[in-house]
Design brief:
Mean pLDDT: 75
Number of helices: 19
Distance between the termini: 44 Å
Strand content: 15-25%
Helix content: 25-40%
Largest sheet: 9 strands, antiparallel
Shape: elongated
Low-confidence stretches: 36-49, 52-75, 144-150, 461-465
Number of strands: 19
Radius of gyration: 34 Å
C-alpha cells in the first residue's frame, strides 16, 4: 500500500507539469486574486476635528466640528488558490472513481459531467464580470459562519468545475484509476492510489496559483486595476470553456512535445510500478507479461486475446464486428486510444500512414477506443472526433474496458502487433519508436507473404536505430537498388560477373540468373554478393535446393530450401558491422528480397 501511494504521488507530480494541463493553468494562475478588501469594523466612529483658531487671543476654547471617521480597510487573507485547487482535487477524484457509476445509475448521458463543468466555468466567468452573479454563486456558502470561507465559495465552485474538465495525460497510474472506476471495482488500494495521485497533481497547481496571488499582491498595477483584471479573468474563463467545448485546445497541445513522457515511463512503468498496478487486476492473459514494451525485435507474447465487450463498431459495413479469428493470414495492428488523449492524437498520423501504405499488402488496423472519461463513451462523440481526426479504419468502442483488460493494457496510446497466426509479437506503449514499429510491420508482412511487394517506408527512420545501416532491396528487375555489375537482362537467362570491388551497400550477381518482375531465379553457378552494414541480414527464398552462406570468404551456414517463399536469417550478430556476404544457390531457387536489421 505504501509503495502504491508513493507511485500515485510521483505520477501525479509528473502529470501536473505535463503539456496536457496547460489549458487550465491560466485560470489557476488568475484564481489567486486580486481579492477585495473588507472593512474592519461595523460602523464608522465620530471624532472632533479642530476648528480655526481665534485671532483675538480670547480665552474661549477653540471651536470643533464632529466628522465621520471612515473605518480603516483591512486586507483579508486571500485563500482563493487553496479553494480552487481543493475543489479541483475533490471533483477530479470523486468523479473519476464514481462518476461513471452515478451517471449510469441515474440514466443520464455519459457526457453530462463534461457539460456541467463547462457550465460552471462559464458561470464563474460571468461572476467575475458581473458581481450579482458572483454573489449568487456564493449564496450556498452563506450559512457557513466563517466570513472568509463564505468569500471563497466562488473559488471552490470554480475548482469543482475545473475538476470535471481536467483531462491530464494518461499514464499507467491514471489508467488503473480510470479502469477501476469504470468497472466499479473500488478497493482501499484504488482509493489510496487515487487520493495520492490527486495530491501529487495538486501540489504544482497550488504553487502556480500561489504565484498568481503573489504577483497580484506585489505589483501595484494589479491592485489599482483589480476590477479590470477580474473582468479579464472572467472573459478568459468563458473563452476557455468555449475552446474546450470546440476542442480548440487540442491543436495547441498536439503541437507541443511530450517532455514528461520519459519521466512518466521511468516512474509509472518501472518494474515496481508494474507489479503494484498489475496486482489490482486478475491473472487472465498473463502470458502477455512475458514480453517487454518496445523491444527492437519480434517475440512470441502468446495468443492474441479476443476483442470483447464492444458496445458499437465504427467504420465497418453496417457496424459488423471484426473477429480476430477471421483475420488469420493477415497482420493486425491493434491501437488502444481515446479521442481526447493528446498523446493518442499525436500518434494517429503514423497509424493512418501505415494503413494507407500497407492495407493492400495484408495489414489490418483496428482502433480500440477505450474511454478515459465518461464523455468519451458517447458513440456520437467518438464518431464525430474520429471523422475529424481522419480515422477511417475499424474502431471498436470498448466502453466497459473489457478488451483493455484482456490485453492487460496500461497506456494510452498502445499498439499491439499480431502475426498471421494470431500471436502477439510486439507491443509499444506511448508515443515514439514509429520507424521501429514500421520495420516490424514490414517483417511480419513478409513472413505472412514472402512474395509481397511492399511500398517505400512511410516516415523517417529513427536515427539511432538505422544510422548507416544498409537499406532493404527487392531482387526483381524494377525495384532492385544498389546494384553494380553487368547490365540486367529482363526475363531471360544471362551469365553475370562480379565486379572487382563491391562498394558499401552494393549488391551484384555472378553466374547464370534470370531477372524477373517478382524475383530472381538462380541458374548454373549462381552467386549473390553484397557489402553491407547491419547486425543481421535476411533473404526470402523459395524453390527446392541448397544455399551456402559465406561471410568474409568463410562458410557460415548451409540452408535447405523447400517450398514456398520463406525468410531466412543469413547473418545474426550482436552489433552492427560492415562485412562482405556471398550466397551460393542451387539452380531453380528463387530470391525475392534482402532486408537488414
Amino acid at each position: 500500500m505504501v509503495i502504491l501511494v508513493l507511485i500515485g504521488l510521483l505520477g501525479g507530480l509528473i502529470t501536473a507539469v505535463s503539456p496536457c494541463i496547460l489549458p487550465v493553468l491560466p485560470v489557476v494562475f488568475l484564481a489567486g486574486g486580486p481579492a477585495p478588501a473588507a472593512p474592519a469594523g461595523p460602523a464608522p466612529q465620530r471624532r472632533a476635528r479642530p476648528g480655526p483658531e481665534r485671532s483675538d487671543c480670547s480665552a474661549a476654547a477653540p471651536t470643533a466640528t464632529l466628522v465621520d471617521d471612515p473605518a480603516p480597510l483591512r486586507t483579508t487573507r486571500n485563500r482563493r488558490p487553496y479553494a480552487v485547487v481543493a475543489g479541483l482535487v475533490l471533483s477530479f477524484s470523486f468523479f473519476t472513481l464514481l462518476g461513471v457509476t452515478i451517471v449510469t445509475a441515474l440514466g443520464l448521458p455519459q457526457d453530462i459531467l463534461r457539460y456541467v463543468g463547462l457550465g460552471l466555468l462559464v458561470l464563474i466567468g460571468l461572476g467575475l464580470i458581473f458581481p450579482p452573479v458572483e454573489r449568487l454563486l456564493e449564496r450556498p456558502f452563506a450559512r457557513i459562519p466563517q466570513r472568509q470561507v463564505n468569500k471563497e465559495g466562488g473559488a471552490f465552485v470554480l475548482g469543482l468545475g475545473l475538476g470535471l474538465l481536467y483531462v491530464p495525460c494518461a499514464g499507467p497510474v491514471l489508467a488503473a484509476i480510470t479502469v477501476a472506476g469504470a468497472r466499479g471495482h473500488i478497493s482501499l488500494d484504488i482509493v489510496g492510489l487515487t487520493v495520492s495521485f490527486a495530491i501529487g497533481t495538486a501540489l504544482p497547481l497550488l504553487v502556480f496559483a500561489l504565484a498568481g496571488r503573489r504577483v497580484s499582491e506585489r505589483i501595484g498595477a494589479f491592485r489599482k486595476r483589480a476590477r479590470k483584471l477580474r473582468i479579464a479573468a472572467g472573459c478568459l474563463m468563458i473563452a476557455l470553456a468555449l475552446g474546450l467545448a470546440l476542442n480548440v485546445t487540442d491543436a495547441i497541445q498536439r503541437a507541443l512535445p511530450d517532455y514528461t513522457s520519459a519521466a512518466q515511463k521511468k516512474i509509472e512503468d518501472s518494474k515496481a510500478a508494474r507489479q503494484q498496478l498489475s496486482g489490482l487486476y486478475d491473472n487472465s492473459n498473463k502470458q502477455l507479461s512475458r514480453c517487454e514494451d518496445g523491444v527492437n525485435e519480434l517475440r512470441s507474447c502468446g495468443q492474441a486475446p479476443p476483442i470483447q465487450g464492444i458496445s458499437k463498431w465504427l467504420n465497418t459495413p453496417v457496424g459488423r464486428p471484426v473477429d480476430l479469428r477471421q483475420e488469420r493470414g493477415k497482420v493486425v495492428l491493434i491501437d488502444f486510444w481515446t479521442y481526447s488523449c493528446i498523446n493518442c492524437q499525436r500518434s494517429l498520423p503514423h497509424i493512418k500512414a501505415w494503413e494507407r501504405a500497407y492495407k493492400n499488402a495484408g495489414l489490418e488496423i483496428i482502433g480500440v477506443h477505450s474511454p478515459e472519461f465518461g464523455f468519451e463513451k458517447k458513440a456520437s462523440n467518438v464518431q464525430s472526433q474520429a471523422r475529424k481526426l481522419g480515422v477511417t479504419y475499424p474502431v471498436a468502442l470498448d466502453n466497459k474496458l473489457t478488451t483493455w483488460d484482456n490485453y492487460r493494457n496500461r497506456f494510452w496510446p498502445a499498439k499491439y502487433l499480431i502475426d498471421a497466426h494470431g500471436t502477439v509479437r510486439y507491443f509499444k506503449f506511448g508515443e515514439g519508436q514509429y520507424a521501429q514499429t514500421e520495420d516490424l510491420i514490414r517483417t511480419l508482412l513478409r513472413q505472412a507473404n514472402p512474395a509481397v511487394v511492399l511500398p517505400p517506408k512511410t516516415g523517417q527512420p529513427d536515427a539511432q536505430l538505422t544510422a548507416g545501416r544498409t537499406p532493404e532491396t527487392y531482387l526483381n528487375n524494377h525495384l532492385i537498388t544498389g546494384y553494380v555489375g553487368d547490365p540486367i537482362l529482363d526475363d531471360k537467362a544471362k551469365t553475370y560477373h562480379f565486379p572487382s570491388v563491391i562498394p558499401a551497400n552494393g549488391i551484384s550477381l555472378d553466374g547464370s540468373w534470370t531477372a524477373g518482375y517478382e524475383y530472381f531465379t538462380a541458374g548454373r553457378d549462381a552467386r549473390l554478393g553484397l557489402t553491407y552494414k547491419a547486425k543481421n541480414v535476411n533473404l526470402v527464398l523459395a524453390g527446392h535446393g541448397n544455399a551456402t552462406v559465406l561471410l568474409d570468404g568463410k562458410v557460415t551456414k548451409r540452408l535447405d530450401i523447400t517450398g514456398t517463399p520463406t525468410m531466412h536469417r543469413l547473418v545474426d550478430e550482436k552489433t552492427a558491422r560492415q562485412a562482405h556476404l556471398e550466397v551460393r544457390l542451387d539452380p531453380g531457387i528463387q530470391a525475392y528480397v534482402l532486408t537488414f536489421g
